[in-house]
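Hi U.,

Before I forget, here's the chain from the pilot set. I'm dumping it here mostly so it's searchable later in email.
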Amino acid sequence: MPEAIEVRKVVLDSVSDASGLARLIDDGVMDASRVVAVIGKTEGNGGVNDYTRIIADRAFREVLIAKGAPAEQVSQVPIVWSGGTDGVISPHATIFATVPAERAEPSDEPRLTVGYAMSEPLLPEEIGYVAMVTKVADAVRVAMERAGITDPADVHYVQTKTPLLTIHTIRGAKARGHQVWTEHTHESMDLSNGTTGLGVAVALGEIEMPTDADIMNDRSLFSSVASCSSGVELDQAQVVVVGNARGIGGRYRIGHSVMRDALDADGIWDAIRDAGLDLPERAHPSDIQGRLVNVFLKCEVSADGQVRGRRNAMLDDSDVHWHRQIKACVGGVTASVTGDPACFVSVSAAHQGPDGGGPVAAIVDLGAGEPTGYTWRP
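Structure:
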């Protein structure tokens, strides 16, 4: 039986700032040895050479060790950083930790659960092919089992981190007599994310196993709960499954929906409602009243270069890559819904939600007493 989860969001005052995590531990909100996952946004460029992710990763692991967690255990904690806080998005981290049974708020309702797994090593020549889909799907199933989830309908968010291609790994594949899907390292970010999204979809029964030809081509194939990132810092798929389970107790619950396009604020509200928050038909950020811990979104430019019938120039812009433009756009829409710029918005959503849109997951606090989410008071 999995344990109840405590989840909190902290802001980052600099790329190496883990003081928010330290305060949570010092205040007794969570124990360093019980932290099971961290998902956050850093202020780097979000590209292949975004080393802010490595700096933030090191800072958080150092705090966990300094606060008493065994170093070997800390090295295995999945810490997923998404680079790029374009527009109003504020750097932050969402921290998940288990709670001892005697401290968990009792509830017979579905409550937040988290499971984690690592895939078999992913070779550069497997990125963009069914071999990668299979390895990711296997890891998702392991993470589900560890979360105590047997019904895929209870999975509302799957955050992954996978390797992308670098000049070094491309050269290595060629030396072994293999070709890679692309030799453009930045393009390989979209490729790795998209292939991983299909792996999540296969594991959860959202789609049948695709073919190599489907990958990055058939955008009707997607997962509604996958949020896939990639980077230079690992050679496996790091998988965090977040869902709900009965009987574990706790304050928190997760739900999900999808944005149909970049302006679909209703998709965000639908995810918050799906998590269990009772809202009016035409909700306002003030209706949330500190009950929202965080929202997690993926976004993508529509392949037809339009939003709601109007042309945009993101795909043609040679000065600012569309990754940064769509992230800033969706980040603004999200912050306007939640009232909090510290929202997790990540770009490169191939096979993650419908074309031009993306999945949305929301974690809410349904516990007794004072809510633990953020409320802005001018």
